[in-house]
Please model this.
Amino acid sequence: MEERAAANQEKREQIYAAAVAEFQERGFREARMDCISARAGASKRTVYKYFESKEKLFQELIRRHWARFAATLDVTYQPDRDIRDQLTAVGRAEGALLTSPEVMATTRLVMSELLRSPELVEENQEKTDFQAALARMIQDADADGQLRVENPQQAAEEFIALIKGKAFWPVIFGAPVVSPDEMTEIVESSVEMIMRRYGT
Model:
């Protein structure tokens, strides 16, 4: 029973990997289920057994992609740790994703489909409210006296904008993915600006 379940999961992953390659190469609209089945080395019947449509395959891609970003949401204020270090750790966690060519290529794909077919993405997007988690951390740091912030939500928006303004949006519109060294500089600069603005 366990062997059969493992085999089914393996086949599902093969089909999913083939679909990702097809979507990356052709985009969602031009991708074809028969090409996906050929890439996966499976019959179309087998593909449809695991994923009933091209839309379902793309929605699985979206779900997994947002889940990777959701993993960075473990943002909790630590009273016994310097807030500069905490902000730096948060920036590095986000930066690890933004320096991944594979992650950013998938992000471009998802963003382009969001523009063409918002309902396809919005219906299934996991809510990865990184900003709200960061705002709570900043609010806690304010209450603890490590920061002086009247509007934690605004401060969180500013911190995220500093990073994404250099490492996310330019890449979405065609710029090269930033290097790890560049990301380190971006994070350090962003943290320094926040500390100069809100540090006690």
